[in-house]
Amino acid sequence: MNFKLPEKVNSIIELLKANGYEAYAVGGCVRDMVMGVAPNDFDITTSALPEETMQVFKDFRIVETGVKHGTVTVICNHEPFEITTYRIDGDYLDNRHPESVSFSRKLKDDLARRDFTVNTLCYNEEDGLIDLFGGIDDIENKIIRCVGNPEKRFSEDALRIMRALRFSSTLGFSIDDETTKCIHSQKDLLKNIAIERIRDEFTKLLCGKKAFGVLSEFHDVIEVFIPEFAELTDCEQHTPYHVYDVGCHTLHALRDVESKKLLKITMFFHDFGKPKAKFTDSDGIDHFKCHASIGAKMSREILKRMRYDNKTIEKVSTLIGIHSEPCPKTKTDAKLLLSEVGEENYRDFIKVRRADCLAKADPHSHDEKLKVMQDLLDEIIENNECYRLSDLEIDGNDLIKLGFSNGKDINLALQILFIEVLVDNEKNNKNYLVSRAKALLEEI
Ligand code: ATP
Ligand code: MG
Predict the structure, then answer these.
(1) In this predicted model, which residue has the larger pLDDT, 199 or 233?
(2) Which ligand lies nearest to the CA atom of residue 208 in the structure?
(3) How many angstroms separate the CA atoms of 297 and 303, rounded?
């Protein structure tokens, strides 16, 4: 195999070697290069001790935050590179962190502590690809397999359970049988892991190409930190609109939405309100009234519990809250929705609704409605039509000049003028609005 490392990575490796140390690009970046994918970032592993690395890079800017664990960050032309000393992890007593780490001069020691065989590959120009744990075979056969004994490896660091699921989803690989067995039997160790770390792996899992398969095979693992997920699978939908239970519908909708983090999270949680909202009528037909607002509230709580950032929480719960609203059919409907949720959420509503419908009995029932919705938006934006109070050609100060004196009246008048303009954009001109405001002043 013939790789080309980026110039800077290569020069870092060469400089370490020129000083008598071993050095390789390692882990995810080599795995990605073998798979023909562009790596996110390049990690470097070396036989040099941290202080030796710092000596070699004394003319560079260095960040020392990880030194205790063997990592020196070298800034090379404004770009940071993590250089980590070959490391042996000490005993793990808490399923999270080694009690101590010690450094080694042997590459194999460092590769043996890594999580999966596909993440143990390393490379430099002189030695080529080094594969001590069968990583290449596993990439070829598309398999995630623990390095060494899975039971031991998961009990050392239970986050690896989520990492296995994440890599299976993003790389589209299966998980080896023995590793799979231990994931199921040791899943409860995840309770010892910080939720932020689980959340980051979970989010990547949702965005992966094999999320559907991973979430169905390992739903028991997800239920360790999102117990509400279990209720979806048990929730049948006897309605003419659905062919799947809520769990299966959710996975189809998740698969069919565009691969954007927020949309994937939204689809995963969009029907969490259904089990609580379910009502079966005397004909045996199920109804799920208010499931969207119940789901919005539940997802807000779950996302908060998982320490997602406020922007994600707001956006996802807004989209879930409106996901089953009727699609706007007229420009006024469209502007009302826009004024309520903004342009970005309006666009995402279309995507969410499309994915939701694709996972139902009649997948294309909404194609036309969604096209109308999109066309209405395009027209509103193209004509620069007013859909926000701030787009109105009159404001509170203008009203005060006309003689309005109390805040409540000003708000009321602005709302009336705004609605009139939403219905007829021609009315958004100062002359008309001033004369209309004068008339309102009399009435109020
Ligand atoms: P990505 O493309 O997402 O960055 P990656 O494989 O580079 O994937 P990182 O989380 O950046 O993943 O970790 C870098 C490397 O460090 C991994 O390839 C693996 O060798 C090792 N590693 C990371 N986390 C663990 C862990 N919890 N246990 C063992 N090894 C780990
Ligand atoms: Mg990485």
Answers:
(1) 199
(2) 1
(3) 10
Its sign, for the CA torsion 353, 354, 356, 360, is: positive
Which ligand 1 atom sits nearest the alpha carbon of residue 163? Answer: 27
> Which ligand 1 atom sits closest to the C-alpha of 27?
18
Report pTM.
0.93
- With bands split at pLDDT 50, 70 and 90, how would you rate the model's confidence at 101? confident
Closest ligand 1 atom to Cα of 31: 6
Ligand 1 site, CB within 6 A: 27-28, 40, 43, 114-115, 119, 157, 159-160, 163
Average pLDDT over residues 381-388: 95
Ligand 1 pocket test, pick from 87, 115, 152 with the greatest ligand atom count within 8 Å of Cβ, gives 115
- Of all protein residues, whose CA lies closest to atom 16 belonging to ligand 1? 27
Nearest-atom index, ligand 1, CA of 120: 20
Going from the Cα of 71 to the center of ligand 1, the distance in angstroms, rounded, reads: 14
Confidence at residue 1, expressed as pLDDT on a 0 to 100 scale:
63
